[in-house]
Batch of 4 targets.
Target 1
Amino acid sequence: MKKTTIFFTLFLLILSCTAISAQAKYEKEKAEISAMLDGFNIAAAKADFNTYFNYFAEESTFIGTDATEIWDKKAFMNWAKPYFDKKKTWNFTSVKRNIYFSKDGKLAWFDELLDTQMKICRGSGVLEKINGQWKVKQYVLSVTVPNEVVDKVVEVKAPIEDILIKEMSTKE
């Protein structure tokens, strides 16, 4: 009985140390990703084109707030360049951020609420660790709409998006 108790206690001790070690690793990774996302937002606010786009993986996608805004990195760079050149970019500050990891730790995804010129927005995305650095593989920017005013928002956007829905549904 004593041997079983000792063995079980040692097993639990080893298991808890392993779990603490994994948790500590992810806490370090979360801090690294959080700093990266803050730098990403700061680079945009400072209109630092090269720094901002270096946060993106070569094969990446940016999905904007408009239904027509889905770009690969090169197309997004082309779209954004005039704004960066004129120093008329966006200034987002994270208010609340969640970060999650794949089991193997090679991928992470996040969602965050952002304080922006459009008021609260949601940024979300997928990150991949490439050559020791976390890179944006996909970024999605969404405008949040309080439930109390969603009917008013739909009323305003319906005439525009009804046309868009018709155009998109007739394309192959």
Target 2
Amino acid sequence: MVKVALVSDLHFDVNHQELDTVIPAHVAWLKQHQVGVYLIAGDISNHFAQSLAYAERMQAALEPAQVRFVAGNHDMLHDVTYDELGTSLAPTYLHQQVLDVAGTNWRIVGNNGWYDYGFADNLPGRDFATWKRAFWVDGSISQPQSDPERLAAELPLIQDQLDLARDAGKRVLFMTHFVPRREFIRYTDDNRFWNMANALLGSPQMGELLAKNQVETVLFGHVHRHFTPRQLDGSWYYDQAVGYHNRRINEWTQDDFASEWRQRVRILNLN
């Protein structure tokens, strides 16, 4: 049995946390709980260099345990290009990569994911791309194609990885940042901004792909709503986001970052 720890949306800079303080505490807790794999489903910080530094320093301190992350939209805001995100930037970066969990029959498949406006199909005819550039943080992220095209490029790559896992007889834990199921989207009658933002949260196509391939376990992030783990179409979905705590927004249930991180980390036992 290998213990795998799941978390996402640490947002170190928004939460005013320093890596030199955070890393020793995280390492000590993960070692105490004998975690063999530590997975972070994106939005570690607003700078890819800092996000990568966290993962690499955690990996060095936790050896022989494995640390892996995918990039969320916030990780993509600075210090990295679209083309670089599609390469093997570091051993800890799992986008379009896999990790076989030693001593088990499990394979972790990683993909950053993206969105295609499918969760805002209740708003026909809207120009989501223009709205995004005007009002959403992702408007500053450079890419060579539309948002639906960006997601469409990833789906066959994910299918290829799932085919390889099936052919190898592997059970799959899939890690992505963006929301894969409509059940985790909030629709409202009194918040037009949020209904537009739903377009940028993920894609129902991702959930359909995971269901078709009978993926057993899915870790995602991006929404900070602290969902209880839920089984849908045979797959268990985990959203272990830490989220924001600042003068404008408080999504935490604990009083400090260390306590909130411990509260949000979920450990699964993989046999």
Target 3
Amino acid sequence: MKLFATRVWGFGFARLPLATFGVKGNLGRLLTLAKRGDRLVFVGTQTERTAPEHQGRILGMAEIGFEPLRTLDLVEREALDPRDFDAAGNFKFPHAVATTRVWQFEPAPVLTQLLSRQLTMVATAGVEEIDDPADVAAVLALNAVEIDLPPLPVLARMRRLNDALRNTTGPRPTDASYNVDRSGTDGEAWAYALQFGSRNVWKIGWADDIDERCAAVNQHIPIELGGLEQWTVKFRQRMKNREAAYKMEQRVLTLLDAKRKGFERVHCAQADLQSVWARAFLDIVQED
């Protein structure tokens, strides 16, 4: 489990279960670095807007959803602090991610008395990884009390998705080889998305052994892609059997049909694929 820290003015997640950001890139960095099961740690700023008893303290932590959100799509302007709007009436923190589970530390320790170092300015506007294993262990050892969150449908859906996906990715199976027989249903299989170099070009498929499949695909680079780049595994999803893996492949391709460029290839941004990937998997889980 990785921990990422960000500075906040308070701990109002029982009212507003969102972590908000002023710059889209700061949210994107979190969603790129973190994985399901990782947690976002909240540290009170040392500014007058933060209550004195919270300043410089580690207030709590949260699991997050992995869909980028727009704050004002979920919250009425009247429910937000007037100080969070500029002189022209624009909201300063339009980008958000849902906090699907939140824990409050009781008591909340002073950061500099618990961790080996102070956070940098990166954690003020964005997030900073707590990368010292001893620091991670110290945070996870704190007395954490889970708080109730508002019953928003988006939160319930994201929490189900986190629970379903948390332990479903990992190393390739070692006791089976790739098999193109789609009628087979015995044994676990994997859905995958391969990325061509650093481009927004993806190959969607399924296999018993993804790495073996990727190596085979790299023997036949499409002429129109050319160059020295190769395919690499970007997404891998463990499924209960080959039929489920094939259904996952087909669901993703169907959802991205408008962006398909032939056979199993699609051209789209990684964020678009990630959103579709999560939606497709959740659909299949709910069908079972």
Target 4
Amino acid sequence: MDTSASNRRLRVLLTAIGNTTLIPQPEFQRRLVWINKDKVEFIRTVLEGYPFPEIYIAAGKVDTKTGEGAEMLVDGQQRITTLYQYFKGSADLRLPKDLLSYDKLEEEQQVKFLEYKVVVRDLGNMSIEQIKQVFQRINSTSYGLNAMEIHNARYGGEFKKFAEKVSQLDFFDDYRIFTSTDIKRMNDVMYCASLIATVMSTYFNRDSEVEVFLDKFNDEFDAQGDLLRNVEAVLAFIARLNFPPKSRIYKKADFFTLFVELYKLLITAAVDLKAPMVRRELETFFGSVDIVSAGLEDGTVDVERYYKAALQASNDRGNRIARGEIINKTLRAAI
């Protein structure tokens, strides 16, 4: 692999982003994960003239008729995007009182900012698969990618896109299933990918089967239309249960189990469940679990077993199966 390093003035990179000849977030990149404090400290680094690690770019598509082409930012999107936000005065960037915005800098300071030299390693014209491999290698020793971010670098296909679509449904935002960190690090997508893979197969250990589904349905995923309608139907049923926002059912492990078991009954078995009766059974059961979790009294065998299966190693297959059996039994009591 022939790579070369050189300096580029920051203004050249910012202009390239502005006219879309430099793509800061190719489809295999992870989401932006820097919080505002990270961005502010990095901007200070540049304004004070300190260096930062090299960024990686690669050649993108070329128009053979006009000779115009684009480049992809393989690694460094956090840094360059932050500087672009500062340069453009983006609302996504909140500056403290002691840090002037770009437009309020003295002209000399603006020039110094724009003339800042960035070390750029040019990977040249590589296939997208080679670029993805480089991206993974680079991040294996720097700010670590989590499992879904690695999968995102390898798979950009239909199953991944579907999991992302599910994770963006209003229900998950309305009931605060995911934290802001979950969303930034794509843990929401991994969670939904696991959820979908489970209802399409069975309980598995942690996220071990997600890659299988990402690979199998990378090119085509014909079932996604019906599957999305089914997912929305189950989420709508859960919403009709009208549990308070801080209820245990919205905790990730508990929600995972409830969703899967409701899917089995409502969709797979076409059982006619009535929301008020299901609410009554679940409220009684989870109320007992909460009492046990508070150490106030012992529970029934099922309650004790469920609580232990949700307390530690909650994503292990055995514990998922245990919780599933108990919730299924609870739901069937409402029939």
